[in-house]
Amino acid sequence: MPEPTKPRKPAASKASQSDADTSAAPSEAAPVSADTVGATSAAPTSPSSSSDSDSKDKDDSGNGVFGPFRLGFLVGGGLPDLVSLGGMIKLTRYFGAGVNVGLIPTVHISYYGEATLAFQEYDAYAHIFPFGGSLFLGAGVGYATVKGTLATHFDLSSYQKMYPQANIPPSLDVSSQAQVRTLVLTPQLGLLHTFGSGFTIGADVGAQLPIAPSQVDFSTQIPSTIPAAYKAQIQKQYIDPNDAKVRSSLDKIGRTAIPTFDIKIGWLL
After folding, report:
1. Pick from 127, 141, 143, 171: most CB atoms within 10 A?
2. Domains and CATH numbers, the chain
């Protein structure tokens, strides 16, 4: 009898083998894909974000042309100083000091008579920046001086009628000069920001507090047109009461606390 024929195993088709190779490929390439993702996530940050953070660190850092010191000038205006100017030095980002001159140009007022008034202030100050930024606490000590002139007109027609032979003029113009000088303490709270370039801008509020008795100088000149026989009488009746009111006002000015406000700009190298 002939031997039975053994069944043959069906051969895998080329298409099936190709599909198997293709399905196995992703598993072999998976490590490469993971490395690529890791490299992408570890890429360095953009230069723009780094430069932005550097520029912020430079503001108010206290580092300028002279290293940890900044030196420059500030100008501004406010109250009571309409115009102010001075110099400042920041020894570190936490401490600064300087000198300041404040002025009110001569102005004309009408109160007890036609008057001119001028104000000057000289002080030295210190600022503490508790957080190393823009916010500061400070105080200044110096002298505030008020100078003025006063021209007062008096009607002497009654005296002229009473003493027609005395050659008393119908009116009298009296000129006076005054000055008040006071030692003042000026506590301050404010903001002063210095950019990396050195440009500085700030504002502060405070109060000008007299800390010593005021020195008041006041003098009045009586014209020589008044006859000597009536000079003392006219001065007692007209001039002395007016002078007393002016002196009282000047003394009050020297004892009064004044609120302060300043806006300043400048450059600290």
Report:
1. 127
2. 61-268 (2.40.160)
